[in-house]
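Exercise 7.
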Amino acid sequence: MMKKIVSLLLALTLVFALAACGGNPEKNPEPDPKPVETADPVDINLYVLAGPTGIGAVNLRAKAEAGETLSNNYHVTMTGANDEVVAAVSNGQADIACVATNLAAVLYNKTEGGVKVLAVNTLGVLSILTNGTELNTVADLKGKTIYSPGQGANPEYILRYVLQGNGLDPDKDVTIQFVGEGSELMNVWQDDSEAVIMAPQPVATALLIQNEGAKKAFDMTEEWEKVSGGDSTLMMGCVIIRTAFLEEHPEAVTGFLKDYSLSIEAAQNDVEGTAALCEQFGIIPKAPLAKQAIPQCGLTFVAGADMKAQLNGYLSVMFEANPKSVGGKLPADDFYYVG
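Solution. The predicted structure, written as C-alpha coordinates, is:
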Protein backbone atom coordinates (compact mmCIF):
# COMPACT_ATOMS: atom_id res chain seq x y z
CA MET A 1 0.00 0.00 0.00
CA MET A 2 2.77 2.43 0.91
CA LYS A 3 4.50 1.81 -2.42
CA LYS A 4 1.25 2.58 -4.23
CA ILE A 5 0.86 5.82 -2.28
CA VAL A 6 4.47 6.80 -2.91
CA SER A 7 4.15 6.01 -6.60
CA LEU A 8 1.04 8.17 -6.92
CA LEU A 9 2.69 10.99 -5.01
CA LEU A 10 5.75 10.89 -7.21
CA ALA A 11 3.63 11.08 -10.33
CA LEU A 12 1.64 14.04 -9.01
CA THR A 13 4.50 16.10 -7.66
CA LEU A 14 6.76 15.49 -10.64
CA VAL A 15 4.35 17.74 -12.54
CA PHE A 16 5.15 20.54 -10.14
CA ALA A 17 8.87 19.80 -10.11
CA LEU A 18 9.18 19.85 -13.87
CA ALA A 19 7.49 23.20 -14.19
CA ALA A 20 8.84 24.03 -11.12
CA CYS A 21 7.50 21.49 1.87
CA GLY A 22 10.59 24.23 6.15
CA GLY A 23 7.90 26.92 5.89
CA ASN A 24 8.72 30.60 6.25
CA PRO A 25 5.85 32.20 8.11
CA GLU A 26 7.89 35.14 9.31
CA LYS A 27 7.77 36.53 5.77
CA ASN A 28 3.99 36.59 5.81
CA PRO A 29 2.30 39.94 6.31
CA GLU A 30 -0.36 39.88 9.00
CA PRO A 31 -3.63 39.20 7.16
CA ASP A 32 -6.83 40.92 8.23
CA PRO A 33 -8.76 38.77 10.73
CA LYS A 34 -11.84 38.65 8.46
CA PRO A 35 -12.39 38.41 4.72
CA VAL A 36 -13.25 41.66 3.01
CA GLU A 37 -16.89 42.02 2.03
CA THR A 38 -17.49 43.87 -1.22
CA ALA A 39 -20.77 45.31 -2.48
CA ASP A 40 -20.83 43.12 -5.56
CA PRO A 41 -19.03 39.78 -5.21
CA VAL A 42 -17.39 38.67 -8.43
CA ASP A 43 -17.22 35.15 -9.85
CA ILE A 44 -13.56 34.09 -9.97
CA ASN A 45 -12.34 30.95 -11.72
CA LEU A 46 -9.30 29.74 -9.79
CA TYR A 47 -7.07 26.95 -11.15
CA VAL A 48 -4.60 25.11 -8.93
CA LEU A 49 -2.08 22.34 -9.55
CA ALA A 50 -1.99 19.16 -7.51
CA GLY A 51 0.98 19.23 -5.18
CA PRO A 52 2.55 21.97 -3.05
CA THR A 53 1.25 24.94 -5.05
CA GLY A 54 -2.32 23.80 -4.43
CA ILE A 55 -2.10 23.31 -0.66
CA GLY A 56 -2.49 26.99 0.17
CA ALA A 57 -5.86 27.16 -1.61
CA VAL A 58 -7.65 24.24 0.04
CA ASN A 59 -9.03 26.24 2.96
CA LEU A 60 -10.28 28.93 0.57
CA ARG A 61 -11.92 26.26 -1.55
CA ALA A 62 -13.61 24.71 1.49
CA LYS A 63 -15.04 28.08 2.52
CA ALA A 64 -16.14 28.81 -1.02
CA GLU A 65 -17.99 25.51 -1.34
CA ALA A 66 -19.65 26.17 2.03
CA GLY A 67 -20.71 29.64 0.88
CA GLU A 68 -18.64 31.30 3.59
CA THR A 69 -16.53 33.67 1.48
CA LEU A 70 -17.66 37.29 1.48
CA SER A 71 -15.34 38.90 -1.04
CA ASN A 72 -16.05 36.83 -4.14
CA ASN A 73 -17.60 33.66 -5.48
CA TYR A 74 -14.76 31.21 -6.12
CA HIS A 75 -14.94 28.31 -8.54
CA VAL A 76 -11.86 26.14 -8.01
CA THR A 77 -10.52 23.69 -10.59
CA MET A 78 -7.65 21.35 -9.73
CA THR A 79 -5.47 19.79 -12.39
CA GLY A 80 -2.32 17.72 -12.53
CA ALA A 81 -1.15 19.09 -15.85
CA ASN A 82 0.64 22.38 -16.47
CA ASP A 83 -0.63 22.38 -20.05
CA GLU A 84 -4.21 22.59 -18.79
CA VAL A 85 -3.40 25.63 -16.68
CA VAL A 86 -1.58 27.31 -19.55
CA ALA A 87 -4.52 26.70 -21.87
CA ALA A 88 -7.07 27.87 -19.29
CA VAL A 89 -5.20 31.12 -18.64
CA SER A 90 -4.53 31.72 -22.32
CA ASN A 91 -8.15 31.26 -23.40
CA GLY A 92 -9.67 33.14 -20.47
CA GLN A 93 -11.19 30.17 -18.64
CA ALA A 94 -8.93 30.80 -15.63
CA ASP A 95 -8.97 34.22 -14.03
CA ILE A 96 -6.40 33.39 -11.36
CA ALA A 97 -4.08 30.38 -11.14
CA CYS A 98 -1.52 28.88 -8.78
CA VAL A 99 1.51 27.83 -10.83
CA ALA A 100 5.27 27.39 -10.70
CA THR A 101 7.10 30.73 -10.76
CA ASN A 102 9.05 30.03 -13.93
CA LEU A 103 5.81 28.97 -15.67
CA ALA A 104 4.37 32.35 -14.67
CA ALA A 105 7.29 34.06 -16.42
CA VAL A 106 6.84 31.86 -19.49
CA LEU A 107 3.15 32.74 -19.65
CA TYR A 108 3.91 36.44 -19.26
CA ASN A 109 6.24 36.32 -22.25
CA LYS A 110 3.96 34.05 -24.27
CA THR A 111 0.95 36.33 -23.79
CA GLU A 112 3.00 39.55 -24.13
CA GLY A 113 2.09 40.80 -20.68
CA GLY A 114 -1.28 39.11 -20.48
CA VAL A 115 -0.64 37.87 -16.93
CA LYS A 116 0.77 39.32 -13.73
CA VAL A 117 2.03 37.68 -10.56
CA LEU A 118 0.05 38.58 -7.45
CA ALA A 119 1.98 36.79 -4.73
CA VAL A 120 4.42 33.99 -4.00
CA ASN A 121 2.77 31.07 -2.21
CA THR A 122 5.45 28.36 -2.10
CA LEU A 123 9.14 28.49 -1.32
CA GLY A 124 11.48 25.61 -2.05
CA VAL A 125 10.02 22.11 -1.88
CA LEU A 126 13.22 20.19 -2.64
CA SER A 127 15.34 18.19 -0.20
CA ILE A 128 18.52 16.16 -0.49
CA LEU A 129 17.94 12.72 1.04
CA THR A 130 20.40 9.99 2.00
CA ASN A 131 19.96 6.44 3.23
CA GLY A 132 22.90 5.81 5.54
CA THR A 133 25.39 8.10 3.80
CA GLU A 134 26.69 10.88 6.07
CA LEU A 135 26.92 14.37 4.59
CA ASN A 136 27.95 17.39 6.64
CA THR A 137 28.09 20.02 3.89
CA VAL A 138 27.01 20.26 0.27
CA ALA A 139 30.69 19.96 -0.67
CA ASP A 140 30.56 16.40 0.69
CA LEU A 141 28.45 15.49 -2.35
CA LYS A 142 31.66 15.31 -4.39
CA GLY A 143 31.92 11.91 -6.01
CA LYS A 144 28.29 11.03 -5.29
CA THR A 145 25.50 10.06 -7.66
CA ILE A 146 22.43 12.26 -7.27
CA TYR A 147 19.05 11.09 -8.54
CA SER A 148 16.61 13.87 -9.38
CA PRO A 149 13.54 14.68 -11.46
CA GLY A 150 13.41 17.75 -13.65
CA GLN A 151 16.10 17.58 -16.30
CA GLY A 152 16.06 20.85 -18.20
CA ALA A 153 13.70 22.41 -15.65
CA ASN A 154 13.76 24.08 -12.24
CA PRO A 155 15.14 21.17 -10.19
CA GLU A 156 18.18 20.83 -12.45
CA TYR A 157 18.94 24.57 -12.38
CA ILE A 158 18.47 24.74 -8.60
CA LEU A 159 20.75 21.77 -8.04
CA ARG A 160 23.44 23.16 -10.31
CA TYR A 161 23.27 26.60 -8.66
CA VAL A 162 23.72 25.15 -5.17
CA LEU A 163 26.50 22.79 -6.25
CA GLN A 164 28.41 25.57 -8.00
CA GLY A 165 27.96 27.84 -5.01
CA ASN A 166 29.69 25.20 -2.90
CA GLY A 167 32.67 24.85 -5.22
CA LEU A 168 31.51 21.78 -7.13
CA ASP A 169 31.36 21.34 -10.88
CA PRO A 170 28.00 19.65 -11.61
CA ASP A 171 29.42 18.04 -14.74
CA LYS A 172 32.64 16.71 -13.20
CA ASP A 173 32.44 16.43 -9.42
CA VAL A 174 29.09 14.61 -9.18
CA THR A 175 26.99 12.34 -11.36
CA ILE A 176 23.45 13.62 -11.82
CA GLN A 177 21.07 10.84 -12.79
CA PHE A 178 17.77 12.27 -13.98
CA VAL A 179 14.62 10.16 -13.76
CA GLY A 180 11.99 10.32 -16.46
CA GLU A 181 9.20 9.19 -14.15
CA GLY A 182 8.74 9.89 -10.46
CA SER A 183 8.13 6.22 -9.71
CA GLU A 184 11.77 5.51 -10.57
CA LEU A 185 12.82 7.16 -7.29
CA MET A 186 11.11 4.41 -5.30
CA ASN A 187 13.73 1.78 -6.01
CA VAL A 188 16.90 3.88 -6.16
CA TRP A 189 18.22 2.76 -2.79
CA GLN A 190 17.50 -0.89 -3.56
CA ASP A 191 20.00 -0.71 -6.39
CA ASP A 192 22.46 1.80 -4.90
CA SER A 193 22.33 2.31 -1.12
CA GLU A 194 24.92 5.10 -1.30
CA ALA A 195 22.99 7.13 -3.85
CA VAL A 196 21.65 10.57 -2.99
CA ILE A 197 18.11 11.62 -3.92
CA MET A 198 16.80 15.13 -4.50
CA ALA A 199 13.03 14.92 -4.09
CA PRO A 200 10.14 17.42 -3.95
CA GLN A 201 7.47 17.39 -1.26
CA PRO A 202 5.42 15.48 -0.39
CA VAL A 203 7.46 12.78 -2.12
CA ALA A 204 10.44 13.42 0.18
CA THR A 205 8.31 12.77 3.25
CA ALA A 206 6.91 9.58 1.73
CA LEU A 207 10.42 8.29 0.99
CA LEU A 208 11.56 9.04 4.54
CA ILE A 209 8.60 7.10 5.89
CA GLN A 210 9.24 4.17 3.58
CA ASN A 211 12.96 3.85 4.35
CA GLU A 212 13.81 3.52 8.04
CA GLY A 213 17.44 4.59 7.70
CA ALA A 214 16.78 7.55 5.41
CA LYS A 215 17.12 11.17 6.49
CA LYS A 216 17.08 14.68 5.07
CA ALA A 217 20.62 15.90 4.61
CA PHE A 218 19.90 19.35 3.18
CA ASP A 219 16.95 21.66 2.62
CA MET A 220 17.54 23.22 -0.78
CA THR A 221 15.76 26.42 0.23
CA GLU A 222 18.28 26.96 3.02
CA GLU A 223 21.21 26.03 0.79
CA TRP A 224 20.00 28.41 -1.93
CA GLU A 225 19.88 31.30 0.52
CA LYS A 226 23.40 30.51 1.74
CA VAL A 227 24.72 30.67 -1.82
CA SER A 228 22.75 33.76 -2.83
CA GLY A 229 23.82 35.68 0.25
CA GLY A 230 20.28 36.96 0.66
CA ASP A 231 20.07 38.43 -2.85
CA SER A 232 17.31 36.01 -3.80
CA THR A 233 15.00 33.42 -2.29
CA LEU A 234 14.07 30.04 -3.68
CA MET A 235 10.51 30.81 -4.74
CA MET A 236 8.93 27.93 -6.62
CA GLY A 237 5.20 28.63 -6.56
CA CYS A 238 3.08 31.73 -7.11
CA VAL A 239 -0.37 33.10 -7.90
CA ILE A 240 -0.96 34.74 -11.27
CA ILE A 241 -3.88 36.67 -12.72
CA ARG A 242 -4.99 37.61 -16.20
CA THR A 243 -4.15 41.27 -16.69
CA ALA A 244 -7.54 41.93 -18.31
CA PHE A 245 -9.37 40.49 -15.30
CA LEU A 246 -7.26 42.59 -12.90
CA GLU A 247 -8.04 45.77 -14.80
CA GLU A 248 -11.75 44.95 -14.90
CA HIS A 249 -12.11 43.89 -11.25
CA PRO A 250 -9.45 45.58 -9.08
CA GLU A 251 -11.57 45.50 -5.91
CA ALA A 252 -12.33 41.80 -6.36
CA VAL A 253 -8.59 41.14 -6.63
CA THR A 254 -7.96 42.99 -3.38
CA GLY A 255 -10.58 40.80 -1.75
CA PHE A 256 -9.05 37.66 -3.21
CA LEU A 257 -5.61 38.47 -1.86
CA LYS A 258 -7.02 38.85 1.64
CA ASP A 259 -9.05 35.65 1.36
CA TYR A 260 -6.05 33.79 -0.01
CA SER A 261 -3.66 35.05 2.67
CA LEU A 262 -6.14 33.78 5.27
CA SER A 263 -6.19 30.40 3.52
CA ILE A 264 -2.39 30.22 3.70
CA GLU A 265 -2.50 31.21 7.38
CA ALA A 266 -5.04 28.47 8.07
CA ALA A 267 -2.81 25.90 6.34
CA GLN A 268 0.11 26.94 8.52
CA ASN A 269 -1.84 26.98 11.79
CA ASP A 270 -4.27 24.08 11.29
CA VAL A 271 -2.14 21.39 9.72
CA GLU A 272 -4.48 18.54 10.64
CA GLY A 273 -7.56 20.22 9.18
CA THR A 274 -5.65 21.25 6.07
CA ALA A 275 -4.32 17.71 5.63
CA ALA A 276 -7.87 16.38 5.66
CA LEU A 277 -8.83 18.90 2.98
CA CYS A 278 -5.78 17.93 0.89
CA GLU A 279 -7.05 14.36 0.80
CA GLN A 280 -10.64 15.47 0.21
CA PHE A 281 -9.70 17.63 -2.78
CA GLY A 282 -7.05 15.28 -4.19
CA ILE A 283 -4.04 17.52 -3.54
CA ILE A 284 -2.26 14.78 -1.56
CA PRO A 285 -3.70 11.24 -1.59
CA LYS A 286 -3.70 10.52 2.16
CA ALA A 287 -4.29 12.89 5.08
CA PRO A 288 -1.71 11.28 7.44
CA LEU A 289 0.99 11.77 4.83
CA ALA A 290 -0.20 15.31 4.12
CA LYS A 291 -0.07 16.08 7.86
CA GLN A 292 3.63 15.19 7.95
CA ALA A 293 4.47 16.89 4.66
CA ILE A 294 2.66 20.23 5.00
CA PRO A 295 5.08 21.75 7.55
CA GLN A 296 7.88 21.05 5.07
CA CYS A 297 6.10 22.52 2.05
CA GLY A 298 7.39 26.08 2.29
CA LEU A 299 3.93 27.65 2.46
CA THR A 300 4.16 31.42 2.48
CA PHE A 301 2.44 34.58 1.35
CA VAL A 302 4.78 37.23 -0.04
CA ALA A 303 3.30 40.12 -2.00
CA GLY A 304 4.10 43.67 -3.04
CA ALA A 305 7.61 45.08 -3.25
CA ASP A 306 9.15 42.22 -1.25
CA MET A 307 7.72 39.71 -3.68
CA LYS A 308 9.02 41.67 -6.66
CA ALA A 309 12.57 41.95 -5.34
CA GLN A 310 12.91 38.35 -4.20
CA LEU A 311 11.16 36.73 -7.16
CA ASN A 312 13.09 38.80 -9.67
CA GLY A 313 16.31 37.57 -8.07
CA TYR A 314 15.20 33.96 -8.36
CA LEU A 315 14.08 34.30 -11.99
CA SER A 316 17.39 35.99 -12.81
CA VAL A 317 19.24 32.86 -11.69
CA MET A 318 16.90 30.73 -13.80
CA PHE A 319 17.48 33.00 -16.79
CA GLU A 320 21.26 32.74 -16.44
CA ALA A 321 20.98 28.95 -16.27
CA ASN A 322 18.74 28.75 -19.33
CA PRO A 323 16.75 31.65 -20.85
CA LYS A 324 14.08 29.22 -22.07
CA SER A 325 13.23 28.37 -18.45
CA VAL A 326 11.55 31.79 -18.09
CA GLY A 327 10.26 32.14 -21.64
CA GLY A 328 13.34 33.57 -23.33
CA LYS A 329 13.70 36.82 -21.39
CA LEU A 330 13.18 38.19 -17.92
CA PRO A 331 9.73 39.70 -17.31
CA ALA A 332 9.49 43.50 -17.21
CA ASP A 333 8.42 45.45 -14.12
CA ASP A 334 4.75 45.28 -15.09
CA PHE A 335 4.86 41.52 -14.48
CA TYR A 336 4.77 42.19 -10.74
CA TYR A 337 1.55 43.40 -9.13
CA VAL A 338 2.57 45.55 -6.17
CA GLY A 339 -0.85 46.95 -5.28
